[in-house]
2,3-dihydro-2,3-dihydroxybenzoate dehydrogenase (Streptomyces dengpaensis), 301 residues
Amino acid sequence: MPYATTTRPWATAPSGPGRWGGGGLGARRHPEGDGHVSADPELSGRLALVTGAGRGIGKAVVTALVERDARVLATDLDPEGVEALAEKYGDQVAARPLDVTDAAAVEALVAETERTLGALDIAVNVAGILRGSPVVDLTDADWAATFAVNTSGVFHVSRSAARRMTERGRGTIVTVASNAAGIPRAGLSAYAASKAAAVMFTKCLGLEVASRGVRCNTVSPGSTLTDMQRALWTVSDDEDPAAAVRRVVEGDLATHRTGIPLGRMADPSDVAEAVAFLVSDRARHITMHDLYVDGGATLRA
Ligand SMILES: NC(=O)c1ccc[n+]([C@@H]2O[C@H](COP(=O)([O-])OP(=O)(O)OC[C@H]3O[C@@H](n4cnc5c(N)ncnc54)[C@H](O)[C@@H]3O)[C@@H](O)[C@H]2O)c1
């Protein structure tokens, strides 16, 4: 049981003053209420839940939030990556296992978080899976698994967070979707459909909770250098990965991909910066927005 050895036992999370303690939350100023924008560091003391935080974009989101002095509950199906983040960032990050497909587990963790660490200010849905296949070969299992994580997972986490945020009249939720939600991609039907559903779900939630001070937005990345992206490449072991990146950047008209106009593949931090902006008070008048971070790949300029 890898989590039995967590470096930050949940039950013993400090409750006194300090970064994990009570000093930060009450002292924060929310511009939605008084028109004052927080000074740098802009997310000081705020508590964020991030799913899929163990690697790739989720890990970059944790880093971006920590850099802005937020406290982060880093969760993932796979314990290794989030444990490493808790090690690295000391009392600013706690690691917990979470399978976002398990609605009861999500609700229990959010309840426990609020009980032991305080009110959730921010929830970021990053957990996602990609099962590529032409539709005619797509299995029922792959279709179901894709929607269970990419769509139902977003629903579970957002619902648990929104229940509490609306009661307090403040909070913000960001869902990391995909630019595949907005443009047809061969071999990615389940993935693209699941992400399109997650985008529309997040917008509908944003509409429902707007009058209660809660903002909900999506960030839609294009090709981003992570394990998920690498798994998409059909490179043999001895082929230069740079060649695979070049193919993505240049595009492939045979598969109706126009390439990336900005001429580079995204780094996970490019996506994390967009998330960090949307959860900050600088975005206080932005909700139900879908922010594309794809270097222009879907020609949305
Ligand atoms: N990398 C890209 O090119 C790209 C492009 C567009 C969108 N995205 C989206 O960004 C998000 C992050 O992608 P990434 O590239 O970092 O992927 P990744 O595969 O590197 O990381 C995904 C993380 O989600 C976790 N996860 C998977 N199933 C889970 C579950 N049931 N519960 C909790 N955690 C689970 C994994 O353990 C992993 O740590 C995903 O939602 C993905 O669809 C990625």
Remarks:
- The chain has ten helices and seven strands.
- The chain has two domains: 33-224+267-293, 225-265.
- Residues 1-40 have pLDDT under 50 and may be disordered.
